[in-house]
Structures are given as C-alpha cells and as structure tokens.
Amino acid sequence: TDLPGTWLALEEAQDNLKEAQELLEQGKTEEAQALLELVEAGLTKAQRKSQSRTWALPLSVKLAELQTDQAKTALDIAKLELAKARVELGKATITASFDGIVADIYINEGQQLSSMSYANPAIHLIDPSEIKMNGVIDEMDISKLKLGQEADIILDALPDKEVKGRVTFISQAGTVQAGVVSYKTIITLENPGEQLRDGMSATAEIIIDRHENVLLIPNRAIQGSWDSPWVEVLADEQVEQRPVELGLSDGIKTEVLSGLEEGESVIFPESQLPFRMFGG
After folding, report:
1. Residues 77-133 pLDDT 10s
2. N or C: which end of the chain has fewer CB within 10 A?
3. Containing domain of residue 106, as a range?
4. Residue 154's domain is classified under what CATH number?
C-alpha cells in the first residue's frame, strides 16, 4: 500500500471538503454538491488503501474525521435545498394584501405562466368596504382641487342614494383627448353600502369651499364683467342697474357679498322677468 499516496488522497479530500463548505456558505449548493462527490470518491479510495497495513489505525481515524465532516456538509446542503424548496412552494400560493371578494379570475388551473404573464393580474379582488371612483377633472378646475376635499356622489343606477366621498388622488400629469386636457382623479367613497357594485357609473360634485347662510343669485342675472359685475334690480316698478360684489359660484348660482338684499327682485336680461333673491 502506498502510504504517501493515501495521505495525499486524504489531504486532497480535506481541501475539497473545505472548499465545498465555503461554497455552501455562499449559497452555491450545486457547486458544493459537486465537490462533495469528489470528497466521497477520495475517501473511498483512501479507505481501501488504509486497510492492509499496521499504520491503518491513524489513517482510519483521519478517514473517520473526514467522513464525519462530509456527512455534516451533506446535511447542511440538504437543509439549504429544503429551505429553497419551501420558498418555491410559497410562491405557488397567492396571498391577497387585503380581505375582499374575488370578482374575476384571469388564469386557469394547470396553466403555465411565463415572465410575460406577470404583466397582467391573475385575480381581480374587490374590497367592498372601500370603493374608489375614478374620474377626470378639466384643466380649468384642477387648480381648485386638493386632497381631502369632500364630494357628493350621484349614482346613475341609484339616484336617490346619498353617498359621500373624499378626494384621495390627483394626477400630476394631464391627458389630452380631442384637444381637451384633463387630469385623473380618484375619490374614495366613505359610506358605499352593500348596493354599490364595481363598474357602476357615477358623477361627483367636489366641494372646493363651503359657505352657509349666504345670498345667492342665478348666474343668468349677472351682467358686465367679473371685475365689474352688475345686475338689474326691479324697485318701485323701476329697473335699476346695481353693481354687486360676488363670491363663490357653483356654475349655476353665485354668492352675492354686497350690493343686494334678500327679498329684492332682479331681472334676467334675456327674458326681462323678475327673480326674487333668496338666501341659501
């Protein structure tokens, strides 16, 4: 038996085992497994040579130590492979980020998904407790919009249902369609109830400011310019031009800050019919 050759085989196996352990620490299980197979082959070769001489005992001790280390390394590799398998198994389970109702499923059982498939959703999940309304705001009004503003929602299918909401998203980038610039806006409904369904059509009136107990006048009665507005007032059967100071407007009626009193009658210029002022 070649004693130097036997020790050389053991030392080579020990070096390979050390390198395999380093690869294992780096997570390179395939490379570590390949070196471990070389270690096993070297140990088998050394074991055969160590069984025919009187100096077999020290060789056997050295061999046993290496075999123990080899077994520990093989166990570590198996543990790492098991951990990887558990991670991959976890990827097979789809976990929703919130409680809700599955409205639609876009994949079929047994279907193989590619990297391109991840661009599309697998499931359409709805949270019935929080419904969002997607809409657009004209560029003329976008500067008046702020996050948190209240909104009254009018549903086409449920016109008598009162639904409140708040502005929760305002896009910073506009979209041009037919030459008109608009901005995507999202309103989160505060009291959706069970009657609302995903995809319903609705209109939102966003409250940009609120004044109560004010004097209102129809916009049709206002003449002149915004800087110098005036109205025609019927007083003692005489028509009088009266300058007024205006406040908030909803596009139909406008707040009058000064120039008119509640109960006075104004005249629409196109019809010349008097309209009695009222508070609101």
Report:
1. 676 676 677 777 777 777 777 888 888 888 888 777 766 655 677 788 887 777 888
2. C
3. 97-127
4. 2.40.30.170
Residue tagged 């059967």 (tokens): 237
11 plus 82 within the same structural domain: yes
| 129 and 195 Cβ atoms separated by less than 8 Å | no
pTM over 0.90: no
Distance CA 254, CA 17 (A): 87
DSSP string, 73-95: HHHHHHHHHHHHHHHHHHHTS--
Residues β-bridged to residue 136: 184
Cα gap 277→280, rounded to integer Å: 10
| Residue 33 neighbours by CB under 8 Å, 6+ apart | 20, 77
First to last CA, the chain: 112
DSSP reduced 3-state for 152: strand
Of 122, 186, 133, the closest CA to residue 163 belongs to 133
Domain count within the chain:
4
CB-based contact 190:164 (threshold 8 Å): yes
The secondary structure of 119-150, three-state, reads: HCCCEEEECCCCCEEEEEEECCCHHHCCCCCE
> CA 223 to CA 127: how far, in whole Å?
50
If DSSP codes are grouped into helix, strand and coil, which group holds residue 99? coil
125/103 Cα distance (integer angstroms): 6
Q: Tokens for 86?
A: 């558990």
The neighbour count for residue 80, using CB atoms within 10 Å, is 16
